Amino acid sequence: MSGGLDRRALVAALVARRGSALLLAGLGSPAWDLAAAGDHPQHFYLWGGMGGAFAKGLGLAMARPERRVVVLTGDGEALMGLASLATIAAQRPPNLALLVLDNRVYGETGGQPTATASGVDLAAIGAAAGFPATLRLESPDRAETALDLLLTAPGPVLVQARVDHRPLPLVLPIKDAVAAKRRLRAALGLAD
Amino acid sequence: MSSSDWSEGVHRAFARTGIGLVAHVPDAGLTPLLARCTADPAIRVVGLCDEREGPALLAGAWLGGLRGLLACQSSGIGNLVNMLGVSAVGRFPLAMLVTMRGEWGEQNPWQVPMGQAVPAVLGAMGVRLFSLERAEDAEAVLDGALGLAFGSEQMVAVLIRQRLLGAKRFVPAGATAS
């Protein structure tokens, strides 16, 4: 299925502009995308706990109000974590941004359609929940606008990026969550 | 002894451990504790829509240097089981306070299956269990549980027993409690 943005290019552009932002990738393709853009101690990759990426981002954003926190995850993971859009909207963390890489399929399990394939509009759900900034990104010429929102707009921010679904080289991130957490905490100056 | 007595000791243990975040899906039994936490400027109280959010939220918070706790009813444990894997594989400290239903004088049979299964389910996932049955033990039990969670990067749950909380009464309009 085509007709969307190049997800790897979008994530690479996000990483290039990341600065001090902490990036949290949901399981599956978004984790591979973030790894493909280059590993870094400010990155944390989930390999499980489907549906928890948004909530984990909220916790990190609440703990580090001086840092931008960007969660990038897939449409399937986002749909499983919909309740967290309400939780986040209620907390209104100004430093939290969510990027949904929406390819409209469960890419890791055989390409079965997700609910977004039927038109479910996650950005509209976010807006209805009370997110002050939401965007449906559907063409590359608005990618910079989306990155501006994700990295600088008062949050919480939700960008639903329509990305294409095609085979990509598999780039696997660090699998050892204990090592990943220790290096991220070290990057934040936290002792164990 | 009123059921609110235990909440004072729990709250003192929170302060000593540096708990700055209390995430919860509310339960009647938690009301006195949540009121104390809401009144405490050192604690941010976050209402969740689903208990599944709890372990993920607390892992993220701890990653950023903020210690938190999840408070929920026993039924909510059934909702969050897979998310315990995040805490387990990353050895993220996870502290949970669980108000038990379905065990002591329960009047709602729908609460019984999950309530009775909580110790086995949490045990199967590697959560270290503590039991709070007497209000006067609250501070010591919480000290022990929170110390284990944050000192040794463990998942812990303090089960507040229904005998301490009291069974919820259901009195239909126009009827009197029997």
Task: Give an overview in words.
The complex is a heterodimer of chains A (192) and B (178). With 192 residues, chain A is of the alpha/beta class. Chain A has a single domain (7-187), classed as 3-Layer(aba) Sandwich (Rossmann fold), CATH 3.40.50.970. Chain A has helices at 7-16, 29-36, 53-63, 75-80, 82-91, 122-129, 143-152, 177-187; strands at 22-25, 43-45, 69-74, 96-102, 105-106, 112-113, 133-137, 157-162. In chain A, the strands form two sheets. In chain A, strands 2-1-3-4-8-7 form a six-stranded parallel sheet, sandwiched between helices. Chain A has a two-stranded antiparallel ribbon with strand order 5-6. In chain A, a hairpin with a 5-residue loop joins β5 (105-106) and β6. In chain A, α1 packs across α2 (29-36). Chain B is of the alpha/beta class and 178 residues long. In chain B, 47% of the residues are buried.
Integer count of domains of chain B = 1
How would a crystallographer describe the biggest sheet of chain B? 6 strands, parallel
Q: Compute the CA-based radius of gyration of chain B.
A: 16 Å
What's the CATH H-level superfamily name of chain B? Thiamin diphosphate (ThDP)-binding fold, Pyr/PP domains
Determine the most extensive contact between two protein chains: A-B, 36 and 31 residues
Using only C-alpha atoms, the radius of gyration of chain A works out to 15 Å
Number of DSSP-assigned strands of chain A: 8
Strand order of the largest sheet of chain B: 2-1-3-4-6-5
Report the average pLDDT across residues of chain B: 95
Domain count of chain A = 1
CATH architecture of chain A: 3-Layer(aba) Sandwich
Mean pLDDT of chain A equals 96
| Largest β-sheet summary of chain A | 6 strands, parallel
How would the global form of chain A be characterised?
A: globular
Order of helices and strands of chain B: HEHEHEHHEHEHEH
Name the CATH class of chain A.
Answer: Alpha Beta
What low-confidence regions of chain B span 5 or more consecutive residues with pLDDT below 50?
Answer: none
